[in-house]
Write a structure and sequence with these properties.
One of its GO terms (molecular function) is ATP binding. The strands form 3 sheets. The chain has a 6-stranded mixed beta sheet with strand order 6-9-10-3-11-12, sandwiched between helices. The protein has 249 residues and is of the alpha/beta class. The chain contains 9 helices and 12 strands.
Length: 249
């Protein structure tokens, strides 16, 4: 589904990603783990098309099609979804209007019918209940006055509504308590299917207790230096990343 070939990204004169190769088949959840500064967030921003994160070499293919020349909104319409470490707030913009506008923009781009207000309100309320966001919270402007955990719940609400083809979760577990981690696992597991893929970027095993990965990759020195099964996460928590320092050099 997602194939990254020889991806090289340079920022501020420093090579952050250095010939990275990664494949995530449809229907699978892959996790990326690695030390600080390894390039994990750079990888997520590059796939999503964030400005100033254009590769100097390599390619990113989604279902066999290169997305490098696509803008972020075009990639989103193709089904790429990025969950941020620190979701932004937009004061003065109504939450439901903002999300419905974004959702219908993607539907138009794919040639699908727009969702009516009544249709949207029904599914919005269902998913809001699942992620634990109260009606009072949803009356606020988008993410305005939300705690860090509430912003992450809002992102899981958006992911459930948008039903993207490929989901990138960049340290979604940061700052979450046990209940919120369980909620994230419930949303991801409800979306798992043969035509959808996930890339979960995390520092810790705890999220992977709820989001069961098919494969775990170690990112160090700007490239994947080791891959393994779900048991690799616990090995990394016990032994750290020191063992991979020579491979990353």
């Amino acid at each position: 589904m997602l194939n990254i070939n020889n991806l090289t990204v340079t920022l501020g004169g420093n090579k952050i990603l250095n010939g990275l190769d990664l494949s995530v088949p449809a229907g699978e959840v892959h996790a990326i783990m690695g030390p600080n500064g390894a390039g994990k967030s750079t990888l997520s921003y590059t796939v999503a098309g964030r400005e100033d994160y254009a590769p100097t070499d390599g390619d990113i293919l989604l279902e066999g099609e290169s997305i490098l020349d696509m803008s972020p909104d075009e990639r989103a319409a193709k089904g790429v979804f990025l969950s941020f470490q620190s979701p932004p707030a937009i004061p003065g913009v109504a939450t439901m209007n903002f999300i419905r506008t974004a959702l219908n923009a993607q539907r138009r781009a794919r040639g699908e019918d727009e969702m009516t207000s009544a249709e949207f309100l029904k599914v919005f309320r269902e998913h809001a209940k699942t992620v634990g966001l109260s009606p009072e919270k949803l009356k606020r402007p988008f993410n305005d006055g939300y705690s860090g955990g509430e912003k992450k719940r809002m992102e899981m609400l958006q992911m459930a509504l948008f039903e993207p083809r490929f989901c990138i979760m960049d340290e979604t577990d940061s700052g979450l308590d046990i209940d919120a981690l369980r909620m994230v696992g419930e949303v991801v597991n409800s979306l798992r299917g043969p035509d959808r893929g996930f890339l979960v970027i995390t520092h810790y095993q705890r999220l992977l207790d709820y989001v069961k990965p098919d494969r775990i990759h170690v990112l160090a020195g700007g490239r994947i230096v080791h891959s393994g099964g779900p048991e690799l996460a616990r090995e990394l928590e016990e032994s750290g990343y020191e063992q991979f320092a020579s491979e990353a050099a």
